[in-house]
Amino acid sequence: MGSQMDAVMKQKVENDSSAYLRSICEKHGRNSQLAETAVRESKSFTENEALNQKLVDLVAPGERQLLAELDGRTVARFDGTVTTLHTAGGEIVEYQRTLRQRLISAIADPNIALILLIIGTLGIYIEFTSPGVIAPGVFGGILVLLGLSAISVLPINWLGAALLLLAFTLFALEVKFTSHGVLERAAPWRWCWEP
User: Fold this and answer.
1) Half-sphere exposure of 182 toward its Cβ, with a 13 Å CA cutoff?
2) Which ranges of 110-180 would DSSP assign to H, the alpha helix?
3) Is 35 exposed, middle or buried (0-12, 13-18, 19+ CB in 10 A)?
4) What are the distances in angstroms from CA 124 to CA 134, 151, 165, 183, 191?
């Protein structure tokens, strides 16, 4: 992820995208040469430029006006059939996200995910240092799980993940075997900022 394409692959993708766009424009009677410049030269057009140069059929300032303009138009489908649109007075339904979708969207921010992980880890730490309190451990576990689910959508650097796993293993060994901090001092994330 995030790697640069070589010149040959970049040209191949550009040619493929241009050919696909030309075929769509020709089927719908649009200006295929001008549309191709959007791919090859990264050109952009205002709505009036697109309308005047036959890149789009119409421009409407809102949903109601769009439905009124589309009413009675005939549309050729990809299978060759022709359909007449009847959109005047059509109902506009606004899509409402569920509570679950709003929650996932809120915690999907990497900054929020990190905060959830930190607070959750602190809650679990409080539970380990003061056994029997229960609430910090429960809420900490929930927050850690929420943070991990949010981080699961981010790309993973496997070397970083391996170093973190090694660090937690060394911390666990430090609890089991008394090494007076030798194992803890060998934790990989210390290598980043300690000489």
Assistant:
1) 5
2) 110-129, 135-151, 158-176
3) buried
4) 9, 19, 18, 22, 26
Q: Do residues 162 and 178 make contact, with C-beta atoms less than 8 angstroms apart?
A: no
Q: How far apart are CA 128 and CA 184, in angstroms?
A: 18
- pTM for this model (two decimals): 0.45
Computed on alpha carbons and rounded to an integer, the radius of gyration of the chain in Å comes to 28
Query: Does residue 82 sit in helix, strand or coil?
Result: strand
For 57, residues 6+ apart whose C-beta sits below 8 A from its C-beta are 73
What are the backbone angles phi and psi of residue 15, rounded to the nearest 5°? -65, -40
- Strands in the chain per DSSP E: 74-76, 82-84
Dihedral Cα 19, 24, 27, 31, nearest 10 deg = -80
C-beta of residue 117 within 8 angstroms of C-beta of residue 151: yes
Per-residue pLDDT reduced to its tens digit, 69-121: 888 888 877 787 888 888 888 888 888 999 988 888 888 888 888 899 999 99
